[in-house]
Amino acid sequence: MGFAMVELGKNGEGGYGVWLLARGMIAGGGAAINCLKAESPRPAIRQPAAVCWGEEEEVKVEEIQVDPPKSGEARIKMLCASICHTDVLCCKGFPLPLFPRVLGHEGVGIVESIGEGVRELGEGDMVVPTYIGECGTCENCMSGKTNLCQTYPLQAFTGLLTDGTSRMSINDGGGGGQTRLYHFLSCSTWSEYTVVDAHYIVKIDPRIPLPHASFISCGFATGFGAAWKEAKVQKGNTVAVLGLGAVGLGVMEGARTRGATRIIGVDINDTKREKGMAFGMTDFINPRDSDKSISELVMGVTGGLGVDYSFECTGVAALVNQCIESTKIEIEKIDELLTHEVQLEDVNKAFELLKKPDCLKVLINF
Ligand SMILES: [Zn+2]
Ligand SMILES: [Zn+2]
């Protein structure tokens, strides 16, 4: 879509490769680009962006107008962006068919200008736009258990910024007017410039290679966080990962970092074997090579025990059961639930048994 990333060379700081948009921006180690001074006027910028005009329509690179940031916002000059399956879903009208829309929710850039009241960001900062904000004070932000901020939540359903308006528009074609463009997930990263609410912006170390910064802004971080922060995989654990895309590979890296000793990757694509190995995978299963179910295959690899943790990373609902059945909980924990048994003809006893304080589950035998 005109946003292929090209490795242009190495910068001088730390030897990181510099990856830039094919449109030819030059950057190095977090240097500010075209950065306006705070006192400078901030005009609207005309520049290219990837615009989706309707469900299943081909995405077009159009010249659009990006307004200056309003209070509490920052305008970012994007350095590179990446694609995630959610962008594909957006083109199909997910979660709502809001068109025309500027796509993209992964990417990294540099703050070009800030609106009034923005304190924690400055022009020239290397940043990643995110789609879930953080106020730092709401119940969820304070919980330490979830980052689903209640004040700055996922802006998936409006296609607008926090104040209910858009900073992006396009000439309406001869009429002299401007057609409003919807944002995507507070980000719209497939645009040379984008405006984002400062609560949805993360400042990062400029030494991070740009592709890395872009890739960790969605899928990979989801997987990594699931293993590292949510499940808190422990040293010596066994882990199964169903689906070795960016999310699944993120899980592997999170599990490996946590000290998992056995990481079993499951994918119907054999080319994922090599990728998995690079992320610490110890065993690979291609379910198409066998008539057995995935859970049976995982059991086979683990000597019939199952794994400590199993992660479903494909989004295929039918695999959730396979995922659960691959874990040790099947044989160790669920057995603990069985406290009473009755024959079918005594089924009424089951109702009485269920009232007993020591009863968890009553098995009805035939
Ligand atoms: Zn994504
Ligand atoms: Zn919050």
From TrEMBL:
<dbReference type="InterPro" id="IPR002328">
    <property type="entry name" value="ADH_Zn_CS"/>
</dbReference>
<dbReference type="GO" id="GO:0051903">
    <property type="term" value="F:S-(hydroxymethyl)glutathione dehydrogenase [NAD(P)+] activity"/>
</dbReference>
<dbReference type="InterPro" id="IPR013154">
    <property type="entry name" value="ADH-like_N"/>
</dbReference>
<protein>
    <recommendedName>
        <fullName>Enoyl reductase (ER) domain-containing protein</fullName>
    </recommendedName>
</protein>
<keyword id="KW-0862">Zinc</keyword>
<dbReference type="GO" id="GO:0046294">
    <property type="term" value="P:formaldehyde catabolic process"/>
</dbReference>
<dbReference type="InterPro" id="IPR036291">
    <property type="entry name" value="NAD(P)-bd_dom_sf"/>
</dbReference>
<feature type="domain" description="Enoyl reductase (ER)">
    <location>
        <begin position="54"/>
        <end position="364"/>
    </location>
</feature>
<keyword id="KW-0479">Metal-binding</keyword>
<comment type="similarity">
    <text>Belongs to the zinc-containing alcohol dehydrogenase family. Class-IV subfamily.</text>
</comment>
<dbReference type="GO" id="GO:0008270">
    <property type="term" value="F:zinc ion binding"/>
</dbReference>
<dbReference type="InterPro" id="IPR020843">
    <property type="entry name" value="ER"/>
</dbReference>
<dbReference type="Pfam" id="PF08240">
    <property type="entry name" value="ADH_N"/>
</dbReference>
<dbReference type="InterPro" id="IPR013149">
    <property type="entry name" value="ADH-like_C"/>
</dbReference>
<comment type="subunit">
    <text>Homodimer.</text>
</comment>
<dbReference type="GO" id="GO:0005829">
    <property type="term" value="C:cytosol"/>
</dbReference>
<keyword id="KW-0560">Oxidoreductase</keyword>
<dbReference type="InterPro" id="IPR011032">
    <property type="entry name" value="GroES-like_sf"/>
</dbReference>
<dbReference type="Pfam" id="PF00107">
    <property type="entry name" value="ADH_zinc_N"/>
</dbReference>
<keyword id="KW-0520">NAD</keyword>
